[in-house]
Amino acid sequence: MKDLVRALPAVHELQKDIRFMELIEQVDLSESFLTDSLKFEIDRIRKELLTGNWKGHEPGTEEFMDELFMSVGRLVAKKRQYTLTTVINATGTILHTNLGRARLSENALKHVVETAMNYSNLEYKLDEGKRGSRHSHVEDLVKEMTGAEAAMVVNNNAAAVYIILSALARGKDVIVSRGQLVEIGGSFRISSIMEESGARLVEVGTTNKTHLLDYENAISAETSMIMKVHTSNFKIYGFSKTVETKELVQLTNKHDQIIFYEDLGSGVLYDFQKHGIGEEPVVSEVLKLGTDIVSFSGDKLLGGPQAGIIAGRKELIDQLKKHQLARVVRVDKMTLAALEATLMDYLKGEKGLVQIPTLRDLLVPISELKERTEKFVQSIRSFGGKLSVRITEGTSKVGGGTMPDVDLPTYLATISHPEVSAEHIAKKLRTEYSPAIIVRIQKEEVHIDLRTVAVEQEQQLLEALKLI
C-alpha cells in the first residue's frame, strides 16, 4: 500500500499535463484554483489508499491519470455551481419559508436590477445636491398605505421588534400577555428578544385568558410600554380571551409615559377578509385606532422583500432613526428598490395587486385553478406510460407563519406509479431535474398544486414528469 501511495503523482508534475491545461480552458477558472482542487483530490486518494478504501485504478497507470482528471473536473464543476438556485414550488404553500417565502413582482425585479446595475440617489437629495436619508425612499409610500405619521424600514421584523424595545423601553417594564409570548421561526422568542434589548418583560394573564384588568394592575412607575403581539402563527380556540387593540389604546392614553406598540407580524395592507380569507388585521385599521407604533414583515402577506417595516407616531420613529442600532439593522438599496416597487403596485389598486405573486396566488379564482389542473392532467395522460394521474380536491396553505387556520380550496394533480413509490418520484423530481421540483406526498401519492406554480413553469414540470 505504501508503494501505491509513493506512486501518486506530484502536483507540480500534474500541472504540466495537457489535461490540466485543457481543464483550465474548459472551466474558465484560475490556475491556482485548479491546483487546489488537484491537491484536494490527491489528498483524498492518499487517505483512501492508506485505509484500504481506494476502489479506483492503480496510481502510476494512465487509467489512473484519466480517472484523476475526470474526478477533478467533476469537483470543479460542482464548486462552480451556485448553491442558491431556482426551484419550482408545486406544494401549494404560498409563503413557503424553506423555499424563500414571497416571490417578487416583475416591477420589483426590474427596479432592483436597475438600481443594482447603476449608481443611485440612495442617500442623496437630487434637488438640493446634499446628503439625504435612505429612509426617505419608501417612507411616503408606507405613510400613504397605512396612514402613519412616519415610517422606517429595517432588515426584518425581528430586527424591528428589537430596535423598538431597545430604543423606547431599555431598562423599563414592557407589559405583554402571557398568551402572546410567541416563538417565531428558528426558535426566536419574543421573550428572548426582549431580554436582549434591555427591556424588562412583565407577563400578565394566563396562556388562554388575559383581561384588561391584568394590564391595569401591572402598570407602575417603571412601565414604559404595553406590547401586543399578533399571534399570526397559531390560534387558541375554546375558553380564551384577549384584550382588543381599542381597549389597550384607551388604557395607555390614560398614562402619558406609556407607549402602546403592536407587533403585527404578517404585514397586511390589503383586507383579505373581503374574500373570506382569514382574520388578519389591516395595518391602517390598527393605526387608525390610535396605536402609537406598529411593526410588520415585508416578505409575508405584503408580498415584498425581506424587511421589517415600522410605522407610527413621528416622534417615536424619529427616535428610532437616530438610534445607534438603526445602522446595524438598516436595509440595502436592493431591498429598498424591491419594497418601493411592491408598494407602488398597491397604489394601483386591483390591477396592481394581481402583479404581486403572493396576492395573486392567494386570490386566484378556484375556477381558474380547476381549468389549469384539468389541462395539466390531460397533458400527463397524453404521455402514455405507467403514470397514473387524476384530479382531486384539496387545500393550499398560506405558510410563512401566517393564517395557520386558513385552508384555501384547490385542485390537485394526484400522481402514482405501480412500480415506483411516491417518495422515489418526489426525490427524483427534487434531485435530478433543473430547476428542482418540490411536491407534496400524501397517502403514498404525489400531489401537485398549480396554485404556486407559475404558468411558464408548467412545461418544465411536464417535461420532468414525462421522464418518470
Entry summary:
By secondary structure, the protein is an alpha/beta fold. The protein contains 20 helices and 18 strands. The two termini are 44 Å apart.
Task: Provide an overview of this structure.
By secondary structure, the protein is an alpha/beta fold. The chain is built from 20 helices and 18 strands. The protein has helices at 2-6, 11-14, 18-27, 31-50, 62-79, 106-117, 136-146, 157-169, 190-197, 212-218, 245-252, 283-288, 314-322, 325-328, 333-347, 350-353, 357-363, 366-381, 422-431, 458-466, and strands at 87-89, 93-95, 124-125, 130-131, 150-154, 173-177, 183-184, 188-189, 200-204, 223-229, 259-265, 293-297, 308-312, 388-399, 408-416, 436-438, 440-442, 445-449. A seven-stranded mixed beta sheet has the order 5-13-12-11-10-6-9, sandwiched between helices. It has a five-stranded mixed beta sheet with strand order 2-14-15-18-17. Helix 4 (31-50) crosses helix 5 (62-79), helix 6 packs antiparallel against helix 15 (333-347) and helix 8 (157-169) crosses helix 9 (190-197). The radius of gyration is 28 Å and the shape is globular.
